[in-house]
Amino acid sequence: MAGVKTLTVELGERSYPIHIGRGLLERADLYRPRIRGRQVLVVTNTTVAPLYLERVRNALEAEHEVESLVLPDGEEYKNLETLETIFDALLELRFNRRCTLAALGGGVVGDITGFAAACFLRGVDFVQLPTTLLAQVDSSVGGKTGINHPRGKNMIGAFHQPRLVIADTDTLNTLDDRQLAAGVAEVIKYGLIRDAAFFEWLEDHVEALLARDPEALAHAIEVSCRTKAAIVAEDEREAGTRALLNLGHTFGHAIETGMGYGNWLHGEAVAAGMVLAARLSERLGWLDAAGVERIVRLLQRARLPTEPPGEMGVEDFLSLMAVDKKVVDSGLRLVLLRRIGEAVLTQDFTPEQLTATLSEALAAA
Ligand code: NAD
Ligand code: GLY
Fold first, then answer.
1. Edge-to-edge, what's the strand order for the sheet holding 4-9?
2. Segment 133-138 mean pLDDT
3. Ligand 1 atom nearest 183 alpha carbon
């Protein structure tokens, strides 16, 4: 299709396309083949609705009964109460099993809308229309949906794949610089976990990404989605490889929960978390000091935090990390780095090594 790069998440009969390109939200031809019934509820938020809702409605209205629901904006609203408002709307509108939910916004709207779709009438279709860099490179792909609990990030949710992802890169022009940088953190993650050449490309192009150079952004989104799609196809339910996508996230989720949802952006918490993972990897003799320095330097150039918040203590981290989803009967598992471009999910660290890494980083914060 002209002007569109299309990748596929290969999941047999549940396979779906990811379209990446400019001006795609208004392309009725992209939605048509992937929306089955007549009823569509576009779920968005108070920031994104005035910017993009009209375009989506225009694209869908010729063939569908389109309704919309505008949620409050913020990570602190990714909770049960907001989820209930989606169910209320669906029931009030008498939506049936052939309906589709369309998530228009960042990862918060995507995660909560996807979870609503997973639960409503025991599961209905949904499509992802991501409008942040973070959502375009990560959260819209792969079917992880859910909400936060006051005691832990993303602790309630379901795997439920979308039927379509449309990443309209023009939407990134209205994103503020801090949110753009938060998305770059997840892009850097892909280089770190299994693509050293992409990490090097990022070392050469990080300023171009921050300046919103369209070619650099399109390349970064495509490489990121290609890696994510391959990992999801290999391990949809996170029996192994998929956990590598959580590099920095166990530390990061502790920061997001500990600091109060919305105070540290998800990508910022992941950036600081990736440095903690790198420092623990160095302590284990895996990653060398030069590797840690390259990671810190790249994140700093992306204007991301590289130290944990000084307000938190080692005990705060340890108790919050104990409710991470990667904890198994035998204890905490972490994604660590053998080298740049090679991550592993491991329990090969002692509590003392983890505590020492945290206390050194917190003392420097
Ligand atoms: P977000 O959804 O809060 O969006 C960031 C901010 O940008 C919000 O204020 C939003 O209203 C605004 N915004 C969105 N699009 C805009 C645009 N085009 N122009 C201007 N403003 C815009 O945050 P996020 O970083 O997109 O997503 C973070 C969430 O994603 C977290 O809850 C995280 O847990 C989740 N996540 C999920 C997955 C997954 O696999 N499901 C992966 C990574 C992150
Ligand atoms: N963002 C982590 C995953 O999708 O598995």
1. 4-9, 16-21, 165-168, 125-130, 100-105, 39-45, 65-71
2. 98
3. 25
Which residue out of 231, 266, 270 has the highest number of ligand 1 atoms within 8 Å of its CB and is therefore the one to mutate? 266
In sequence order, what DSSP letters do the residues of 2-30 get, joined into one string? TTEEEEEE--GGG-EEEEEETT-TT-HHH
Q: Which residue has the tokens 């810190």?
A: 296
Q: Provide the 10 A C-beta neighbour count for residue 92.
A: 9
What digits encode the pLDDT tens for the residues 163-181? 999 999 999 999 999 999 9
Q: Which residue has the tokens 């650099």?
A: 216
Ligand 2: which atom is nearest the Cα of residue 231? 5
Distance CA 294, CA 78 (A): 34
Domains in the chain, ordered, with CATH?
4-174 (3.40.50.1970), 177-364 (1.20.1090.10)
Give the bridge partners for 144, in sequence order. Answer: 159
Going by pLDDT thresholds of 50, 70 and 90, the confidence category of residue 264 is: very high
Q: Which two tokens stand for residue 318?
A: 């340890």
* Pairing of β 16-21 and β 165-168: parallel
Name 171's Cβ contacts closer than 8 Å, sequence gap at least 6. 25, 51, 52, 131
Q: Which amino acid is at 146?
A: G
Mean pLDDT (the chain, rounded): 96
Q: How far is CA 204 from the centre of its chain?
A: 24
